[in-house]
Specification:
Elements (H helix, E strand, L loop, with lengths): L7 H11 L4 E5 L19 H11 L4 E6 L4 H8 L6 E4 L4 E2 L2 E2 L5 H18 L6 E4 L3 E5 L5 H13 L8 E5 L2 E5 L5 H12 L3 E6 L5 H5 L6 E5 L8 E3 L2 H19 L4
Parallel strand pairs: 1-2, 1-10, 2-3, 10-11, 11-12
Antiparallel strand pairs: 3-4, 4-5, 6-7, 7-9, 8-9
Helix pairs in contact: 2-8
Keywords: Hydrolase, Magnesium, Metal-binding
Organism: Gordonia bronchialis (strain ATCC 25592 / DSM 43247 / BCRC 13721 / JCM 3198 / KCTC 3076 / NBRC 16047 / NCTC 10667)
Family: Belongs to the trehalose phosphatase family.
Length: 261
């Protein structure tokens, strides 16, 4: 999709947002800035999206953020992003200024039990793997057979997902068990308040992004990337379209701020 190919209704919404007082441009990482891949560590960002989001963040009264399910340290390394772009990891629990909620010794003890249990489950189903984060652990089933993937997820749901104090987030071929409560929706609220944003643009492709879309308000723009049910008002096809949208927003915002037409 070229800039001229942006659907008229989405273009109108993006122009209105780009011409607000203070703008926040935000996106998920995997499936948006980077294509989905079999090995999470191979998720290389689209250079055009990185350039566009950095260009937006460099403009006056314009802020940019990437809100991801990944651990913050991993998100930072993979994306190559940093100040002035804000990074939020672990579905909103890890900000570049620290954790959204204090992680206590009790949280850490529960997390250790969760990790052990998910590793036990993964050991029974080939192609599954466990990722650990500072306040959560994730069971990945993307590389397992359909039968093993379903069985592994069911084992997690019927077991550790039901433990007291565990917060459950499911996404594409993953289930994440966290010991502190947060979401991408709460992350968007926090970023909006921090920057005093009048309008928020958010792009996301996964089930977890629906919580971010649900926290958007009148004048915001929620864009679903790819297939699947969504509460977002707009939809685009793939990561190339994400780059096109981000480039359009950055250019339109620059034109507005410099008094162009």
């Amino acid at each position: 999709m070229s800039a001229n190919g942006i659907p008229p209704d989405l273009r109108t919404a993006l122009v209105a947002a780009a011409e607000c007082g203070t703008l926040l441009v935000s996106s998920d990482y995997d499936g948006c800035i980077s294509p989905l891949v079999s090995r999470p560590e191979d998720a290389v960002p689209n250079p055009a999206s990185i350039a566009a989001i950095e260009a937006a963040a460099a403009l006056p009264r314009t802020y940019a953020a990437v809100v991801s399910g990944r651990e913050l340290a991993v998100l930072t390394e993979l994306s190559g992003l940093g100040t002035p772009v804000s990074l939020v990891g672990s579905h909103g629990s890890e900000f570049d200024t620290g954790f959204a909620v204090e992680v206590t010794d009790a949280h850490r003890a529960l997390l250790a039990r969760l990790i052990d249990e998910l590793r036990s489950i993964a050991g029974r189903f080939p192609g599954t793997m466990v990722e650990t984060k500072p306040a959560s652990t994730v069971l990945h089933v993307r590389n397992a057979s359909a039968q093993d993937a379903d069985a592994a997820l069911d084992a997690a749901r019927s077991g550790p997902a039901g433990w007291t104090g565990v917060q459950v987030t499911e996404g594409k071929s993953v289930i994440e068990l966290a010991v502190i409560e947060t979401s991408k929706g709460h992350a968007i609220d926090a970023l909006r308040a921090k920057f005093g944003a009048d309008s928020v643009i958010y792009l996301g492709d996964d089930v977890t992004d629906e919580k971010a879309f649900a926290h958007l308000r009148a004048g915001d723009v929620g864009i679903k990337v790819g297939d699947g049910d969504t509460v977002a008002a707009y939809r685009i096809t793939d990561t190339d379209d994400v780059a096109t949208v981000l480039e359009f927003v950055a250019a339109r915002r620059r034109t507005f701020l410099t008094g162009g037409t």
